[in-house]
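Please, structure for the following, as tokens.
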Amino acid sequence: MRGIPTSSAERAPAPDLARGIMLLAIAFAHAPLFVEAVGRGPAVLNDVVGVFHQFFVNNHARPLFAFLFGYALVQLSDRQTRRGSEPAAVRKLLRRRGWWLVAIGFAHVALLVPLDILAVYGITSVLFAGMIRAKDSTLLLTAGIVLVPSTLLVALAMWFPLSKGNSTYDAGSIAAGAKGIAELFVERLQGWPFGLVAGVLMVVPGVLAGIWAARRRLLEELDRPFLVRAAWVTTIVSVAGALPAALMQVGWWAEPSNAALWTAAVAQPLTGYAGGVGLAAIIALVATRPGNAVSTAIQALGQRSLTFYLFQSIVFVAVFFPYGLGLQDELGLAGATGVAVATWLASILVADLMRRAGHRGPAEILLRRLAYPRPGQDAPAVSSRPGPAADRA
């Protein structure tokens, strides 16, 4: 059975709104990595933006994306189940879709930038497709076990620049410098396998949390009191966990001890998982309000998140790399953040124009054609009991 697209009228607004805002968080996280030194530009403005990044961007964008990806896996599984697909066929579809995400992610790295999350989520989908129907205890136990190496991996990456008094963005910079296209291509391919393994470790806890939440339809059948409590608790925990690293980043905590450095390095990514989930809860609360033109446009962006994730990379390469505008040598943290905002706003405009014209995102169309079998070719097995025609996910 070939997948049937869900009409916009049938979609719950909260997940799409969350995916649209998620793209802003990803742009915030990625754009500063394209500059040579985040300290360029007005120092005070960079410090203000740096504190904002520590509290709400660093290690928050990834858990939000992971949470929403896990949520989407359950939505996709539910759609296929309601249409009559057997569980084994659904798992096969999720894994086939995952492998195609790996292929698209590889092309993304090879042709554009070494910042890719598509292949990471593709591998995660392949490995954890069977967890869609796992017991809650299995989901939570697995998430808790993987959370340990995941947090330590990010903590190590944070500890080194903090111990040197440097920005975490400088440490992770992918600025091209004076390198040519061929040299960058070879470097990206050499580093891709290692980034893939580390990336999978870092996203698994968030993906499993998203699966848990989706099985309760927390972003669709909104329990407002629960979401309010969840948003407050997770945001407070997240901000408190990011505070030590933020103080060190701007120099307000001078010469911290090694124990303090490690505490900050561990607390920031660990509580960042709470921050990512909390942001999803806040967005769900916003989605309960009457819709307007802005929220509709952001939802349109969320419905085309794969396309505009790739669009961000194209824009950042064109703006920052030396064979584009070459602004990697001109902008710092604040300037790169401005580019991120401008790219996201342009994405909203284009996505809304596509919505008005009735066009899906080209990357979404490509993935659907690759992942779903053609009629008569390896169609998913269906039960004798037909599922409902309408898809409400």
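Residues 285 and 356 are 26 Å apart (CA to CA). Residues 12-371 form one domain.
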